[in-house]
Amino acid sequence: MANDPPLQHLLAAVERSGRRLSPREHVELRRWLREAPPGDWDTLRVGLASTLARDAEEWTLIAELVERHRAGAVTAEGESLALAPTPDEAAPTPRARRWRDGPGPLAVAVLAWFAVGALIVSAFRPEPHISIPVVEVPVVVPETSEVQIEYIPMPLEPARTLTMEPVQRTPKHREFWRFTLALAAGMLLATLGHRWRHLGAEAQAAQEKLAAGDANRRRQEQRRLELGTDPEPLYGFPLAPPLSAAALAESADRLGQHRRWSGTQRLDVGRTVSRTAQRGGRLAPVFQARGLPAPFLVLIDEGVRGGHPWLHRCQALVEAWRALGVPLIVGTFHGGHVDPVWMGGLPRSIEDLARRTGDLPLILLSPELDPFDFGRVQPWVGRLSAWGRQVWIDPDPLAIQHRGPEIEALAGVGLRRFPFSDKGVVAAATAVVGVGRPAEARDPTLPDGEDREEALWRWALAAVLVPKPTWAHLESLRVAFDELRPALPGPHAVRWLLEWVKKQPEARGKAISDDGAQLHLPKALQQRLLQQLEERATREPDVEAFRQRALEHLDTQLGRAHPKDPLSRLIWTLRKSLIQLRLGEKRAAELLQPLLGSAYHAEVVEIFQREAARSSARAWSAGDREAVAQAGWSRRALGLADLLRGARHTWPHPGHLALWSLGLGLGSWTALEAAEASRPVEVAQAELPATFELRPRRVWPGTGLRPDMVEILPGRFQMGSPEDEERRDADEIQHEVVITRRFAIARTEVTQAMYAAVMGENPSVAEYKGVSLLGDELPVQNVSWVDAVRFCNALSEREGLTPAYAIQGEQVTWNRDAEGYRLPTEAEWAYAARAGRQEMYGETSSSDEICRYANARDSAAGQEFGWESLAPCDDGVAGLAPAGTYEPSAWALHDMGGNVSEWTWDWFQDLPEDLQQDPEGPSAGSGRVIRGGSWSSRPVNARVAYRRWGSPSVRGYVLGFRPARSLPSAL
Q1: Is-contact 904 887, C-beta < 8 A?
Q2: Rg (CA), the chain
Q3: Does the pLDDT at position 910 exceed 80?
Q4: 3-state secondary structure of 343
Q5: SS3 content of the chain, % helix, strand, coil (to 5)
Q6: Can you tell me the distance from the alpha carbon of 527 to that of 440, in angstroms, rounded to the nearest whole number?
Q7: Alpha-helical segments (H) within 415-539
Q8: What is the distance between the alpha carbons of residues 115 and 716, in angstroms, rounded to a whole number?
Q9: Are residues 964 and 824 in contact, defined by beta-carbon separation less than 8 angstroms?
Q10: What is the mean pLDDT of residues 596-625?
């Protein structure tokens, strides 16, 4: 096809557009035309457009031109593409070359270093002494005994005057040394400047390759979406059956005993004669009954984001049962909550599903069923009783140790748990059919000791060698190596791998990727494992042999034939080259450099840099090292170290150095004289802004009915969280908020004694797992939003203030002119919690210091209740702590990040992106905003920006509140 005249017309049309093709583009075009299969117009169109185009518009134009060529509409005179010529490909004119190679550098050097010389000379001036006057802030104390005055730091922007003392002249005899220093500095900087110019051009070319690769990938992915094609599989490996063949056959046989009986047209002679005789000779026909296999309803937990380590085993079990003839109706649910359920791609509620399939036995496959919400059993749990027989098959072997209350709650509604093992699945099949008594089945265990630790290290290392391994891929690696199977004797060993990864410091307690489909191995952990491999491989031959066998195993799984899909072929080539590189078959540049500028340019650059760090294991040529340096420029800015290494051709010519040195010397001497002439500067003043000052604010002392009320002054702050904050939620959109009205807020949360004194009762939960939650000084909990607003009205009436709310059931109207007690808005709560700071946890961004400011899930709570995801500190309190126990914020507020979560006024919605002034949330919604962590919250939930919501009537042992008040100008 390369010599096809119409294709020559196509190239001519490209040239006529004003776009000059580079030699590389000509070579790429010829390769595409030579390798394109005859008649495969889609491949030809994608190849030509992806090679020539620099943006989406050009890609569309070239693709349309190929389509017209396909229809025979392109002629020799042809048409011209609307492609913009490439400016950097145009050759410089002779005049430009003469200027560049002649007086140009000299003129630039003289002009540039005239200013540089002046700066160098002025640097020798003695530093002026700056005296900053002290600005005192007047404080006016109101004449009242009921209000106390505190001082808090508030943002401030007034100017302050700085006075400079007279400048002393420099002695004349130092001018010679100044000139010498200026000349030497000029020569050095001119040399480095010349080199920097060339390095910048090469770095720009590398960055353009990266951008071209990203654009190429986006175009190919868009094309794949347009064609509706899926990526071809890269690795080929057999999936091991989820159970032994005997267990699969026995469980399928037990399930097959479940029958649905129906009548037939065949006469049962014996029973007919007996029935006729009983009726005195009158004919009473009896027909034979036939038992048909009855289906089962199977619901599979797909995880919160569509995956978990045991999902492929659950799916494989269902397929194995189907292959053995068991009739199944299969649905899915997400994240351990069986409401709603997806059937046929559509969501159905648990009530609707029970009406349709309540007569079928139910089998749940899930590694974690969570029946609780705010300490209460969720409604869907009770609705499981609609199915007469139901079982839960749990593939997680550690569930019985860490989720005892959850398992007991589900067993209370008849849902019995069985482990995902040979005996467990057979027992589950026996129980759900109701024929016979199921045998006892225990969760599988794994041996402890150094053998298991070594096996887990090797398993994780094998996972590092595989780019983005799936859970099924990890299982194939475990089965493939003889040294792993004795210490990790079953598919359930993935739980121990997850626990091992969590313990690594780089993983920070996380072992599963955000999408749930892969093992979470941070780059820092991968680099450490590879470094350990390099260190051990030099002294332990079996470790080196394991690496070689692992790489050969992966190379075999990739196969020899590349995929036909262009994007899949690039990924295959990249992974194949990486494996061969690690096997030591070829040098890095020969394998990876041809992929620079492709759709996977960024991945190639990362491999270049990673392999350069492992250069001790392999001899690298100078070309390899230069390729690594140039490839790295596309991922980072040029650094000072780049000036001292790399290609020699970027260093300046000696003649240029001489010209530049002369120009810099003249410029520096002139700068000396100019600096001396402008020396007499005696006294100067400057205006600089201050950053903050202490401002007075009022505090209303607490009574037995309420805590201290602290005045909060107006200001502005950043609400939400920055995009780089760890574990942030999508609804925490950071935006600026302005608070224009003063308000007061309680220094601590309302205690149980205060609530009982106002409302006449204490609704708090008495205990949690044996730990008491009752006490007069403890924050009140188990209060709903409606309870909180009623408390505010009752307290206002006791103090003779106008109530802020009109309450009719759950319908509450806020009178914004009332001075009575109320709940703070979400923006007011966040403003007070920030206290003029932007730290993650209010006063700190370190999880090690959470225990200083908040009562959250720490080591004490973990030891008492067996919790995970703990703050790395210990405050000695497992449950609730007395209000005000922990250190206050900069604005003297306690417990904003812990103890109990707090109700606010606003209906819940995602935060906006633009500037807001005194926001109060939407006018209606389904839940009210809850802010702040609690005594059972993980560290991520103790962040100031963390948000959640609850129905106005919901209660829980972690829910409390603190009141606020509007402050009219009369106060």
Answers
A1: no
A2: 38
A3: yes
A4: strand
A5: 45, 15, 40
A6: 45
A7: 422-433, 450-465, 471-480, 494-503, 523-537
A8: 42
A9: yes
A10: 56
In angstroms, the first-to-last Cα distance of the chain is 88
∠188-193-195 over CA atoms, to 5°? 100
DSSP 8-state secondary structure symbol assigned to residue 690: -
Supply the mean pLDDT for the chain.
75
The DSSP string of 34-100 is HHSPTT-HHHHHHHHHHHH-SSHHHHHHHHHHHHHHHTT---SS-----PPP-GGGSPPPHHHHHHH
What is the number of alpha carbons within 13 Å of residue 480 lying toward its C-beta? 22
Residue 357 has pLDDT above 70, yes or no: yes
Strand 959-960: give its sheet, edge to edge. Answer: 947-950, 928-931, 901-907, 959-960
Q: Could you give the count of Cα atoms lying within 13 Å of 421 in the half-sphere of its Cβ?
A: 18
pTM of the model: 0.45
Contact present, 788 and 821 (Cβ < 8 Å)? no
Output the pLDDT for position 970: 36
Which of 72-86, 93-107, 363-377, 651-665 is most confident? 363-377
Residue 869, pLDDT > 50, answer yes
Side-chain half-sphere exposure of 849, counting CA atoms within 13 A: 9
Spell out the residues 6+ positions from residue 170 whose beta carbon is closer than 8 angstroms to its own: 124, 125, 126
Residues, the chain = 971
pLDDT for 905 beyond 90: yes
In our burial notation (b when 16+ CB lie closer than 10 A, e otherwise), range 347-382 reads ebebeebbeebeebbbbbbbbbbbbeebeeebebbe
CB 935 within 8 A of CB 895: no
Convert 903-929 into a string of H (helix), E (strand) and C (coil): EEEEECCCCCCCCEECCCCCCCCCCEE
Three-class DSSP category at 250? helix
Strand ranges inside 834-950, DSSP E: 901-907, 916-917, 928-931, 947-950
Residue range 230-257, pLDDT digits in tens: 566 677 767 778 888 999 999 999 898 8
Q: Which residue has the tokens 């071809």?
A: 232
What DSSP character marks residue 198? H
Name the one residue in this structure whose structure tokens are 């129905």.
951
Per cent of the chain over pLDDT 90 is 22
Residue-level pLDDT at 744: 93
DSSP state string for 395-425? --TTHHHH-HHHHHHHHTTT-EEEESSHHHH
* CA gap 608, 589 in Å, rounded: 9
Which sign, positive or negative, has the C-alpha torsion 964, 969, 970, 971?
positive
- Provide mean pLDDT across the span 942-956: 91
Cβ atoms of 533 and 547 closer than 8 Å = yes
| 864: Cα separation from own chain's centroid | 30
- 889: pLDDT strictly greater than 70: yes
Q: Please tell me the distance from the alpha carbon of residue 428 to that of residue 419, in angstroms, as a whole number.
A: 9
